[in-house]
């Protein structure tokens, strides 16, 4: 259960209807870890924050090239993603291509993707 009496020191970024997002949210809730959910579609993402994520993890980590959204983008647009700035532009325009979930600790540390063991380690080290 999410502890609403405690200010969450974790933010989970993603898209509400993603299966992996559901697994991550359920895991955090079952562990009793307080977190705030940030939905890219409902809440948006500003370029400064996204650029900071990309600077920390690299665009190759955050750009989900395995999903349908990426595959449905025009080939020319996909081919033009060659650095952090061009990747951020595409991710801002098409937030579904941002890898999810992205777990962010209050200290700025980030974890892309989901697995129970890496979440436990990340939480122990950052919360």
From TrEMBL:
Superkingdom assignment: Bacteria
PROSITE patterns: ARSC (PS51353)
Gene3D superfamilies: Glutaredoxin
Pfam families tied to this protein: ArsC
InterPro entries membership: Arsenate_reductase-like, Thioredoxin-like_sf, Tscrpt_reg_Spx/MgsR
UniProt xrefs under CDD domains: ArsC_Yffb (cd03035)
Family from the record: Belongs to the ArsC family.
PANTHER family xref list: ARSENATE REDUCTASE (PTHR30041), PROTEIN YFFB (PTHR30041:SF8)
Full protein name: ArsC family reductase
């Amino acid at each position: 259960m999410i502890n609403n009496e405690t200010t969450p020191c974790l933010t989970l970024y993603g898209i509400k209807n993603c299966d992996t997002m559901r697994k991550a949210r359920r895991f955090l809730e079952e562990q009793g870890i307080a977190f705030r959910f940030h939905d890219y579609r409902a809440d948006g993402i500003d370029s400064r924050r996204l650029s900071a994520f990309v600077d920390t993890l690299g665009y190759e980590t955050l750009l989900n090239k395995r999903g349908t959204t990426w595959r449905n983008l025009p080939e020319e647009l996909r081919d033009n993603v060659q650095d952090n700035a061009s990747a951020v532009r595409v991710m801002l325009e098409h937030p579904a291509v941002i890898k999810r979930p992205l777990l962010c600790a209050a200290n700025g540390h980030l974890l892309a993707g989901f697995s129970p063991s890496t979440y436990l380690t990340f939480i122990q080290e950052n919360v």
